Amino acid sequence: MMDLLLIVVVVVGIVILRSYNQRLQRLESRVSELQNALAGHVPAVGMGESATAAELAETVSQFPGSSTQPSSETAAEPSAELKEAASAEAGTQEQKEEFVAPALAQKQESLETTIGARWAVWVGGIALALGGIFLVKYSIESGLLSPAVRLVLAAIFGLVLVAAGEIIRHRSEPVLANTFQNAMIPGVLTAAGVVALFGSTYAAHGIYGFIGPATAFVLLGLISLATLGLSLLHGQALAGLGLLASMITPALIASTAPRPWTLFGYLVFTWLTTIAASRLRRWYVVPSFANALLSIWPLLYVFNSDMVDMAPVTLTMLAMVAGTIFIWPGRYEAAATAAESAGSVEAEEPSASSPAGHWAVFLTRAPLGMTLTASIGAAAVALSLLAYSLLYGYPLPDASFLFAAIIATVAAFGGGRAYGAWAAILSAVAAGFGMFIALMQPEIGAELNIAQIVPQLSYLVVYAGLGLGAVFVIVGFFFLRRFGESEKPFAALWGILMVATPLTIAVISYVTFGNWTRDWLHGLYGIGLGVVLLALAEWQSRQSSESEIPLPTNILAVGSCAAFAFALHTLTHDALPTILLPVLGMVFLLAGRARSWPALPWMMVAALIIVLGRIAWRPTVVDPDELGMTPVFNMLLAGYGIPAALAVWSAFEVRRSPDLRLRNTLQALASVLVLLTIAILVRHAMNGGVLNANVPTLGEQSIYTLLAIGASATLMALDLSASSPVFRYGGMALGVLSVILILMLHLFGLDPFITGESTGRIPFFNLLLLGYLLPALAYGGVALYGRNRRPLAYVMMLAVAGAVMTFAWATLSVRRFWQGEYIPLWNGFIQGEVYSYSVVWLLIGIALLWLGARFDARSLRIASAVLVFVAVVKVFLIDMANLEGFLRALSFIGLGAVLIGIGLFYQKVLTGRKATE
């Protein structure tokens, strides 16, 4: 049973290795074809038994820059240009032929070839391995040989296999070797010999103890390096075997006190050997495998050692990334990658999907595996240094600087190579996440029971974070300088990283360690960052050879404004950021006169939105104790009024701008801020200079209602400039919500006629103005703006809501005139008050009738009719019963006169319409 299990394991292992070997060889063949095509070399037709001119033409047509039509002179020969190129490369002809033959040979492979030339080799390798295993097993069971003799024989057996492989390789034909690369007898024999040598050496140390750890380590390392050297002759599969053996050697050799410098020095040397071999043979899979294995060792060391020395770990990752940048694929593939990308973009231009491919091509460039393994591995190790420092009390400032060094190197990889997009992205993500962990540790340390640094050393972590953010700006500049014109999508990505990474780290640092009153360190950092980004935007704009403004210019301009806004928050407090943010936005808007960058005027929009956010966060703008109780002339006038005035100015400045979306957005924001300024000043004045939310009041709710109406108008303006279902239905939803708030709160729940709330001591500027007249005017304006732009039912709803609010304001104002500051229901009614209602209602009805005729608004005319009908009912039912003497007669006389006047008005209107018809 054990024999059968052993056989199954060996067979399955060899089958798995065979499948991987086939995949690797197919990749090698394809890469070799592309390399020969770029060099102008086309294989001869006679290299395969059944190769035809059509197949050759099809093969050549797949190469960039090759013609898809055969030559008119002969169908079996390459073109004259290709012949000339091939003759110019005569010195390297033999080396190129070995890369091309597999592609043609695989097409003509028959069942006979597969069974005779390939399966026989694989089955023979299995039989050879099983024979050796059974022989050793028999010697052990029979006691024929001692352990030492068995080990020596196993080593001799391995050497014999390696020697046999070399002898066969030298005697085999090159064409035969190229045709059957994934079933080469020399490679199979060499791999079997290497396994035998490696196994016997480890058994001599780990099982029988014949040799010590140092000797075993040296022997295993030499075997692994020799395997890597032999892989140059036998292919990438053997290189993978040698690499795996080299990387697991330290784990197989037991040591009670591993020396990290020795360990990682050996690993880096092995990795460099693999990378050098990969560069000579142009391999991509094995170096990706090497990056992954080299990154695993630091993680195992960091989290499984009592004492961690972070210096060799850091240098190991720096060596890995630097080797990827300069050795392989390094600059040797950079030019080819850029040219290939440019060619693919040009080829995709006629298709409808070319923009998407254009923006995605730089994310999928080869060698993608090497880029991802190197970037992910280095970022993971860098984060592990911070995690170990926080969990086990390692000096966090030291770990932060080492972390920054690794991430900066990965960022340099992303900025120095056209295929390093993922290195740029992953380095930025790791930088933000890692510095968040390091800088936020005082906040989360107590909850997670992690080590906290001494407060005096906290600024070292801050310096490391801010310096890392600056590195991204520097690396991005060099990328734009080198690839700004040829790599536009990638350049736009770097523009985002140059802005987002330093700002994210600076904000986290300021929130955790900053002085919220005035922080000169973060403030000067923000100013410097803003100046540098603005200068880079100007430089990038001048470097562009096209009339269109490059996207990185706009991104950098936005980033400079964001950096200045950050500096503004760090150097000022209370109301000053709210006041100065629109000033900053206005500066960028006016700068649009000198530079036609589309992003500049939109900075005013961003500034006003931030102002609204600050107002929502702190409606009093300053501390409530510092607000003052003087009506109108207090900090609210500056905190709300100055942004509103600047918003109106900005809307006036862009009134002739061709950007309709910008014009509508600024006009909407200006309207909201003006209404909000009026509302808050009235709210402050009517509450005796006190703004709080201890008890819900009509004034407070009125501010919310005005905000909802203003937001509805803003979304409507955005939808009209750039049609969007979110803007359209969101704006109408806010309008409906505001009407519901009016029905539930303004007219019932918070009505001072019901609650008895004070309406304020000032006759006109009081709670009634804020709670009823201002919403009425806002509804009227939105209804007028949405006329013929929104559904008729929605516009009618707004118009009727405005009429109802006007009616409520007039009615309650009459009661306040007669009753004073408090107008509750339980105060009763006065005869003059009852008569005044009829007069006011009729006047409102006449006004609504005139407005309905003026704007041809049927909804207003209907509202007028309803209001006049209510007045008629009131006169006949209430006035007749409650008024006496002169007031009763005057009420009926006035009603009759109004009704006759309305009749005459309608007659003239109808007559005029018939005449025009």
Automatic annotation (TrEMBL):
Pfam family, one: DUF2339
Keyword flag Nucleotide-binding: no
Feature: compositional bias, Polar residues: 61-74
Domain of life per record: Bacteria
Residues covered by region (Disordered): 61-88
Tagged with keyword Kinase: no
Keyword annotations from UniProtKB, A to Z: Membrane, Transmembrane, Transmembrane helix
Ranges in a coiled coil: none
InterPro entries for the chain: DUF2339_TM, UCP035905_mem
TM stretches of this protein: 6-21, 119-136, 148-168, 180-204, 210-230, 237-255, 284-304, 310-328, 368-388, 394-414, 421-440, 460-480, 492-514, 520-539, 575-592, 599-617, 632-652, 664-682, 702-722, 729-750, 762-785, 792-814, 834-853, 860-880, 886-906
Signal sequence, renumbered to the chain: none
Protein's name in the database: DUF2339 domain-containing protein
Source organism: Rhizobium mayense
